[in-house]
Amino acid sequence: MARPRTPIGTFGNIEFTTLPNGVVRARTRVRDYDGRVRRIEASGPTRTLAEHRLKERVLDRTKSGPGSDELSADSSFPHLVAVWLEDLDLEGRVAQTTRDLYERNMRQLVMPEFTSYSLREITVGRVDRFLKRLATEKSYSTSKQAKTVLSLAFGLAVRYEAVQRNPVRETSKLRKPASTTKALTLAEIDTIRKAVKTWRRGTGLSGPKPDGQLEAIIEVMLGTSARIGEVLAIRKCDVDVTASPATVRLCGTIITRRGVPTYRQDHGKSSKSTRTVAVPAFTADVLRQRFVSVAKEDPEHLLFCSRNHTPLLTNNVRRRLRSALSQVEVKGVTPHSFRRTVATVLDRAGGAELAAEMLGHTSSDITKEHYIEHDDKVNPVTAEILESLAPKGEGSD
User: Any idea where the Core-binding (CB) domain is (predicted)?
Assistant: First the structure.
């Protein structure tokens, strides 16, 4: 008759050893959920405390159940990060660029702080102090990014039952500093156009002269509200300049990843990002000019491209824009400045819902909070309505 197996979580005799420094070490063997027997140990200043800590560790392992061989409360934080990144790859729910951003934020912002800790040592207080310090020394945005990846990683630890709760969820809410959305004025847009048009076109300058694409990109951003990556991803087949008004289908974006050539992704940032927009005449004129420059190319060819017909890098466009505007009074202009300008103009004329639809947002709340410049002028119709409160003339009832 077969001998019955020892039940899961059962441990044998406890061995106690007094170390040279006076600390008592307690050891035992435990059968884990995978059926294997492993040695567990704990230490303390007294025999009783060492035994108590040992039993706590045994209890933690039995609670963790399946998967405890991968993660436990005693696992190091770097081990959790490795398991978390592997889980992201297996699920495949986030875009590769987002996954890469998560890993970069984890390794650059979080790992330096918690590399030497086990999961049980990463407490709510320790995380809370880290996030507040990061917000003070770096920025709110940096702290928020660190909080996001740290919470996601510990969410996995909770699902694996390596820890009982996610310490990030218990931290205090980060306070976002007050910010003001700024749209460009017509005068500022005119200044930008002139600066870009004359940039590096003087005599005596080394290197090739600008090819005119930066000016065209700005006009397309102003006429479509598109993100810089969406503009650079526009193909010949996405544009209809024969329609009245001309239309542009925004259905992709340019992706740049480490170790991979820059490429066009066939979808945008969200489900609402794919949209067909009618464009004003000044944008249609620019698009027709770009059609001429790529007339011999196939319909899938990009309207904006390098001399080698490869996609333009979004960071390179940003760098060129900064360089072109370095000598003008208009400061802090980025490709997103044009997107905020479009949102503000549309809001003034047709409301936030129209602006959100144009920008490809899932909710007008996002548009209002981040893209529309606040207008402190109340609708003047209030003056007419309030005339009803005027004092009555003498002799009136």
Answer: 75-158
